Amino acid sequence: MILTTERLILRPWKETDAESLYEYAKDPDIGPSAGWPVHQNIAESREVIQNVFQGKECYAVCEKGTDQAIGAIELKLNGSTDMTEQDKECELGYWLGKPFWGRGYIPEAAEELIHRGFEDLGMTTIWCRYYDGNEKSKRVQEKLGFLYHHTCDEVPVPLLNEVRVEHTNYMTGNQWKMRHERREKIKMFRPIRRKKRMISEKDAKKLLLHEKRAVLAVNGDDGYPFAFPINYFYEPESEKIYFHGAKAGHKVDALKKDDKVCFTVYGNEVHEEGDWAPYLQSVVIFGRCHLIEDSGITEAKVRELAEKYYPTKEEIDAEIAADIKAVQLYEITIEHMSGKQIHEK
Predict the structure, then answer these.
(1) In what order do the strands lie in the sheet with 69-77?
(2) Could you please report the per-residue DSSP string of 271-305?
């Protein structure tokens, strides 16, 4: 199997790759951070190709226009990984030669292999891990959309005779599908014009998670936009936003006619010493807003919303008992999210 991306070719390893493998695997900044020792000679690299890089979904990473192997990427299937015992689950592993760092090659290759895992191989979950301190691998997994699962404080690293802290992340097929669909929809929306002001998706979600107030805009009467402040909570697992309000009024009428909305949150104000003007972050979301009619879901989500604002469970219970029958729950499905930071001067 040979896979291609915009800039790369992913192909099976060959014994003739031994010299190229040794060129990059002898670098002490490559193997040890991933849990394996530096290669001592070409013969050792050839042995690794013969005995390690023979998995059904193990590929050499090559730049288009050259057949030189500059890294490795693999979906380690059940029987080749200790992260799962399920045939429909696997582990993603990767490394890249140091001269090619900073070009986005591994995320590009991984996107293709993840697509293959879910679409062609029928995987339900893909696992991934990194050792504490390996910030490059951590950023790759965050960029790909993997979610945190757990941390083990004492994990043996037998090839190096060490014990390390290991962080485990995962991605399900449903999560990948949602992310893939959202990325396709991004093409419909305008990108941020001043790229230097952009914040990462991780920082945008962090702001969304921790701020308490936002402004929601809908298409109102006679084509006029109608914007109003709301309290809300963001659910990272489903990537949905919830808020509540009355069961009738301008907002309800507008959403029944057109479910497209724009949601804006801002905050995380920071002052640098000696500067009167703060730095401020904002997140703008485009999506679809629906009215939730199920009373059980409404009460559960309203309770989660209240836990963000109310100080005690007793107050939450009292408010829900008194008013839940008059509450309308609203759910926003995120189609596009962008964030930026500005200096207010």
Answers:
(1) 3-4, 8-11, 58-63, 69-77, 89-96, 125-131, 162-172, 147-157
(2) --TT-SSPEEEEEEEEEEEEEE--HHHHHHHHHHH
Residue 58 is which amino acid? C
pTM of the predicted structure, to 2 decimals: 0.59
Q: How far apart are CA 297 and CA 303, in angstroms?
A: 10
**Nearest one of 284, 267, 268 to 332, comparing CA atoms:** 284
Strands 89-96 and 125-131: parallel
Segment 12-31, tens digit of pLDDT:
999 999 999 999 999 999 99
SS (H, E, C) 179-190: HHHHHHHHCCCC
What's the length of the chain? 345
Q: What is the DSSP string of 186-205?
A: HTTSPPPS-GGGB--HHHHH
Do residues 142 and 101 make contact, with C-beta atoms less than 8 angstroms apart? no
Q: Pick the more confident residue, 236 or 30.
A: 30
For residue 238, what are its two tokens? 């489903």
Q: Render pLDDT for 63-88 as a digit per residue (tens, 0 to 9).
A: 999 999 999 999 999 999 999 999 99
